[in-house]
Amino acid sequence: MNGRPSVVALCGSQRDGSYTRTALEHALSAARAAGARTTLLDLRELDLPPFDPDLDEQGASADLTSAVREADVLLLGTPVYHGSYSSTLKNALDYCGSDEFEAKTVGLLAVAGGSTYASTLDHLRVIARSVHAWVLPHQVGIPKASSAFAEGELVDEALRARVERLGEEAVAYANIAPDPVRGETESTPADD
Fold first, then answer.
1. What's the CATH code of the domain at 48?
2. Is 8 in contact with 73 (CB distance < 8 Å)?
3. d(Cα 189, Cα 192) in Å, to the nearest integer?
4. How far is CA 152 from CA 103, 109, 163, in A?
5. Residue 25, SS3 per DSSP
6. pTM to 2 decimals?
7. How many structural domains compose the chain?
8. Are 37 and 175 in contact (CB under 8 A)?
């Protein structure tokens, strides 16, 4: 990481007026205020055909993987669909692997129409860990989104504070060493 960390948010919503996109914009705003360079990758604007492992590149997949690889921190944002994350985000993540995620800090955000979002965050955490990312302990779930947002703004102050904290922690932990070298000596207790 050179100078200011780069925080890239992947928005997995296809909806106009997306609550997920709005929440990610709040997180990115907090990250900028904390000193980061930020980018919102709105996946609905990228040409990403369904992932085909037999092809090296498809559509804008090289742009996606390059942006993910070069980011210091990724924020993954998704609406909750059937207790999990969107197919839009799943397709984008299928283009990426350990080369893009290894030792990268990842923050998670899920927006639910109802009250349940925990399994969505769990699923995203498992995916990020499986490609060797370091997932921030602070994650954001926004329940009952229609009451948390009004006229395109996140109006629930407690939730907005959580979203802003996600952006701040993205910057604070941008250069964390997820697998620190342990201070072990050459001798172990069994050798004594």
1. 3.40.50.360
2. yes
3. 5
4. 34, 17, 15
5. helix
6. 0.90
7. 1
8. no
Full DSSP string of 118-178: HHHHHHHHHHHHHTT-EE-S--EEE-SHHHHEETTEE--HHHHHHHHHHHHHHHHTTT--S
Residue 1 lies in a domain: no
Can you read off the two tokens belonging to residue 142? 């926004």
109-126 per-residue burial string, b: 16 or more CB within 10 A, e: under 16: bbbbeeeebeebbebbbe
pLDDT digits 0-9 by tens, 93-132: 999 999 999 999 999 999 999 999 999 999 999 999 999 9
Q: Is the pLDDT of residue 190 over 60?
A: no
Mean pLDDT of the chain: 92
Cross-strand bridge partners of residue 154: 149
Q: Tell me the residue range of the domain where 124 lies.
A: 6-191
Q: Maximum CA pair distance of the chain?
A: 68
Q: Which of 98, 168, 91 is nearest to 130 (CA)?
A: 98
Contacting residues for 135 by C-beta, under 8 A, at least 6 apart: 105, 106, 107, 108, 125, 128, 129
